[in-house]
From TrEMBL:
<dbReference type="GO" id="GO:0006623">
    <property type="term" value="P:protein targeting to vacuole"/>
</dbReference>
<dbReference type="GO" id="GO:0030897">
    <property type="term" value="C:HOPS complex"/>
</dbReference>
<keyword id="KW-0863">Zinc-finger</keyword>
<dbReference type="InterPro" id="IPR056939">
    <property type="entry name" value="Znf_RING_Vps8"/>
</dbReference>
<dbReference type="Pfam" id="PF23556">
    <property type="entry name" value="TPR_Vps41"/>
</dbReference>
<dbReference type="InterPro" id="IPR045111">
    <property type="entry name" value="Vps41/Vps8"/>
</dbReference>
<dbReference type="Pfam" id="PF23412">
    <property type="entry name" value="zf_RING_Vps8"/>
</dbReference>
<dbReference type="InterPro" id="IPR011011">
    <property type="entry name" value="Znf_FYVE_PHD"/>
</dbReference>
<dbReference type="GO" id="GO:0034058">
    <property type="term" value="P:endosomal vesicle fusion"/>
</dbReference>
<keyword id="KW-0479">Metal-binding</keyword>
<dbReference type="GO" id="GO:0008270">
    <property type="term" value="F:zinc ion binding"/>
</dbReference>
<dbReference type="InterPro" id="IPR019787">
    <property type="entry name" value="Znf_PHD-finger"/>
</dbReference>
<dbReference type="InterPro" id="IPR013083">
    <property type="entry name" value="Znf_RING/FYVE/PHD"/>
</dbReference>
<dbReference type="Pfam" id="PF25066">
    <property type="entry name" value="TPR_VPS8_2"/>
</dbReference>
<dbReference type="GO" id="GO:0005770">
    <property type="term" value="C:late endosome"/>
</dbReference>
<feature type="domain" description="PHD-type">
    <location>
        <begin position="421"/>
        <end position="476"/>
    </location>
</feature>
<dbReference type="InterPro" id="IPR059070">
    <property type="entry name" value="TPR_VPS8_2"/>
</dbReference>
Length: 572
């Protein structure tokens, strides 16, 4: 009947009996079942069921679990929500349901009513979806169901393990995608519910989660962490609220509890702390809490006074020192390592004499010989010497960088100005100091009469003072740094002292000085009665930079173009 040249005519009642027999469930295995389904699919493609009742056919194939045929029939009827149920009931193709739902909801071919039916079907079967794949369910919810997360969470509340599995997948997927904008509108109570479930199932991960995540309410999350006694997370939230001392006390209490558990489980007959069951976990907890407390103290000590800083560090040091007296000699070495770690963390935040005095007052050290604490004290001194050397080196480098330019310019300023010629560069007349005309000499070696230099417009008024520019250097166009030779020396017949003009903030900005240099120059100008001489240094800096740069070949005075006439045109 499925062949194109079909000539078989079957009685309707007989055809229905054969179809029912084909769709009847059998116990012949999956292979036989798939063979029956494929035969029926070919029959439908050939048009052999055109006159058969579609409702009756759907009833038969659903009873036979022919889900591929069900999918075809439901797609023809635009019953997309039932197609989803076909995928969920088909154990072979259940993983395709996520791609199908996303394709349907994000497409434009379906109406809003049809999409709403699919959404309701997803919410109804959320348990099955999470069981199939929690990660794919999380991706589907983040892309299409962000506004329905609260409803979905409420539906899964009777099954906390399944809910925690889904929420963990949602937040891990959100972190992997970098917290994209379309995924950032997760409500705060969903965050807090996830934190509460994490406190019940995996409390060690709570601190890391709240440190790297935002979007939760601090007070509510703090109450949850306190309820389940998650110390590190509680301390972080208290520090975020500004309660530093309270956060430190929480961690200190956790440290004392862990040390007590360690001492209780350590038997004197054991040689190592890891010999008893669970010893590694307890010791790792102690190391983790101490590291967290050291970082807490280091972050907040610079913002505190010396007394408050010592109130943080010394209880931690006392606790670690006291623990050495509660265990045998083999385990005491491990706590001495922790003591050294705490002392290294204290360097730079607590005065060294106060630390030494605290150690000497400890009963574990005050009654012994120096050899018992020799290694500890020498380690402290090594750390102190290292930090002292590091500080001096940094200061020397900073001072050298700050004053290097000023020293270089001062040395250059001591050199005399050597004129290139004894005539004016404009009028070519000789320069005589004894005449009434003033003479202006620039550091580039060019000299002019003041009257000659005024005519080309080489004089400007900056902050009420005259600023001169070398005519020849500016006309060559060698750049703003070398052309603006503002600093000059005037030679007058009245034997007046040379008065170089003061440098303005505009000139200093051109000289690429730092803000602290500019401020220092302003302070010197206000402190001195005479005018500032830093204009000379600035001019030297410009000349020095211009001399180090590459000169343009076209700006070279000796450059000459050697042009040849074009070749005569030859007619063919």
């Amino acid at each position: 009947m499925a062949t194109p040249d079909n000539t078989i005519i079957v009685n309707r009642s007989l055809f229905e009996q054969v179809l029912e027999s084909l769709c009847s469930p059998d116990g012949e295995g999956e292979g036989r079942h798939e063979e029956r389904q494929q035969a029926l699919i070919e029959l439908i493609k050939a048009g052999g069921l055109k006159h058969f009742s579609e409702d009756k056919l759907i009833e038969l194939v659903e009873k036979a679990k022919f889900f591929k045929i069900c999918e075809r029939l439901y797609w023809k009827r635009r019953q997309y929500e039932k197609i989803m149920s076909c995928y969920l009931r088909d154990t072979v193709r259940e993983g395709i349901v996520f791609h199908f739902v996303e394709h349907v909801l994000l497409g434009e071919k379906l109406s809003e009513i049809e999409k709403e039916k699919v959404r309701n079907e997803v919410i109804t079967n959320i348990h099955t979806l999470v069981t199939i794949s929690s990660s794919k369910t999380a991706q589907l919810l983040l892309s299409c169901f962000c506004d329905c997360l609260r409803v979905i969470v409420k539906k899964l509340e009777p099954e906390p393990e399944l809910l925690y599995k889904l929420l963990r997948a949602i937040f891990e997927c959100r972190e992997d995608e970098g917290g994209a904008t379309e995924h950032t509108d997760i409500v705060a109570d969903v965050h807090e519910l996830y934190v509460e479930l994490m406190c019940k199932v995996d409390a060690d991960k709570v601190a890391g989660y709240i440190i790297r995540t935002e979007g939760y309410r601090i007070e509510e999350t703090l109450e949850i962490c306190r309820r389940y006694d998650v110390s590190e997370a509680t301390a972080f939230l208290l520090e975020k609220l500004g309660a530093i001392q309270e956060a430190f006390d929480v961690l200190l209490e956790k440290l004392k509890t862990s040390i007590g558990e360690f001492c209780e489980k350590c038997s004197p007959t054991h040689k190592k702390a890891v010999d008893y069951e669970g010893g590694v976990a307890v010791w790792q907890t102690i190391e983790g809490v101490i590291s967290t407390m050291i970082h807490l103290c280091q972050r907040n000590s610079p913002k505190m006074e010396e007394a408050n800083s010592e109130a943080l560090w010394f209880p931690l040091l006392d606790t670690v020192l006291a623990s050495q007296r509660k265990v045998d000699q083999s385990h005491a070495e491990a706590f001495k390592t922790l003591t050294t770690q705490v002392l290294n963390g204290m360097m730079g935040y607590v005065a060294l004499p106060a630390v030494l005095q605290r150690i000497m007052q400890d009963p574990g050290y005050c009654s012994g010989r120096f050899g018992e604490i020799r290694e500890l004290v020498l380690g402290m001194f090594d750390t102190y010497n290292y930090e002292k050397t590091l500080l001096h080196t940094c200061c020397n480098l900073l001072n050298h960088d700050v004053h290097r330019q000023l020293v270089s310019l001062t040395q250059t300023a001591r050199h005399a100005i050597v004129p290139r010629r004894d005539t004016c560069q404009l009028c070519r007349k000789p320069l005589h100091v004894g005449l009434s005309d003033n003479v202006i000499c620039f550091r580039c070696g060019h000299m002019y009469h003041e009257a000659c230099l005024e005519s080309p417009g080489c004089c400007e008024r900056v902050d009420g003072e005259q600023q001169w520019t070398c005519y020849k250097c500016s006309s060559r166009g060698r750049g703003s740094a070398s052309a603006r030779q503002r600093v000059h020396r005037s030679i007058s017949s009245s034997s007046q002292p040379l008065s170089p003009p003061t440098i303005s903030r505009v000139d200093m900005a051109d000289a690429s000085l730092e803000d602290n240099h500019i401020q220092a120059v302003d302070n010197i100008r206000r402190a001195q009665k005479t005018k500032s001489r830093f204009a000379i240094l600035t001019e030297l800096s410009r000349r020095k930079r211009s001399s180090t740069g590459r000169s343009n070949l076209l700006q070279n005075e000796r450059f000459q173009l050697r042009l040849a006439p074009p070749l005569p045109f030859e007619n063919d």
